[in-house]
């Protein structure tokens, strides 16, 4: 396994009076897709938001590319090369696709080569370039959400359930785009409930339960062991979609 680009050690996060993360230990290998799996409500989204700095860790440490980022504000983490795609997409619906992309490229104008890569991954965005994002379909909005973090070079992508509620054809487009990100050298930490996608994309996996990581290993190992899936998550990848 390659060296981790991201390492969480003993991370604890509180939201209001609730103790959500209860000592998370997680390593994300560089250049791989790591699946963060588990039942609803076990802390997966809170983990991503803590890494991004939307929630502050009460205890523990977060290291990115060898640097301690535990106390850094969210903008500094983004400048360091972390991109975040939230479950609610985070796009500006009253702005055009073009305006959304321009805002996402905080360091300067959109590079033509990077924009062409976005269009190659998500062809509908070229078609609707001048359209308001609020008029896009659900799948097209999700494409734009991922495209926005592709507007600048990122070393690590945190992506929260990108295929949720999407038609199979759109899911295939998403999966292909994520493969291309990985092929370009990016590392990805992906929360995903579609086990077919998880099995197809994941190199490694970490399973959460009750605010902790309870299992880590190769995605292929988890995908091949129905009994392990049942024990860790209460369902089998062969029956869940």
UniProtKB/TrEMBL annotation:
Signal sequence, start to end: none
Family: Belongs to the ABC transporter superfamily.
Record's protein name: Branched-chain amino acid ABC transporter, ATP-binding protein
Keywords: Amino-acid transport, ATP-binding, Nucleotide-binding, Transport
Domain ABC transporter positions: 6-235
Matches recorded under SUPFAM superfamilies: P-loop containing nucleoside triphosphate hydrolases
Pfam families per record: ABC_tran (PF00005)
Keyword Transport assigned: yes
Stored PROSITE patterns: ABC_TRANSPORTER_1, ABC_TRANSPORTER_2
């Amino acid at each position: 396994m390659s060296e981790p680009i991201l390492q969480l050690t003993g991370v604890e996060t509180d939201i209001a009076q609730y103790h959500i993360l209860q000592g998370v230990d997680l390593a994300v290998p560089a250049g791989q897709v790591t699946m963060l799996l588990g039942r609803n409500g076990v802390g997966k989204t809170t983990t991503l938001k803590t890494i991004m700095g939307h929630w502050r860790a009460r205890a523990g440490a977060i290291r990115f590319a060898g640097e301690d980022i535990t106390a850094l504000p969210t903008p500094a983490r983004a400048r360091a090369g972390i991109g975040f795609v939230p479950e609610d997409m985070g796009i500006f619906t009253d702005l055009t696709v073009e305006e959304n992309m321009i805002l996402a490229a905080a360091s300067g104008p959109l590079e033509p080569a990077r924009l062409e890569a976005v269009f190659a991954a998500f062809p509908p965005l070229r078609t609707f370039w001048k359209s308001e994002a609020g008029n896009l379909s659900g799948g097209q909005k999700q494409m734009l959400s991922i495209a926005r973090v592709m507007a600048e070079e990122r070393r690590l992508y945190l992506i929260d359930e990108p295929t949720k509620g999407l038609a199979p054809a759109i899911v295939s487009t998403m999966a292909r785009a994520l493969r291309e990100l990985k092929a370009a050298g990016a590392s990805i930490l992906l929360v995903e409930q579609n086990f077919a996608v998880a099995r197809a994309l994941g190199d490694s996996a970490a399973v959460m339960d009750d605010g902790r990581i309870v299992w880590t290993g190769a995605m292929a190992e988890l995908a091949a062991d129905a009994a392990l899936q049942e024990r860790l998550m209460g369902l089998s990848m062969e029956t869940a979609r």
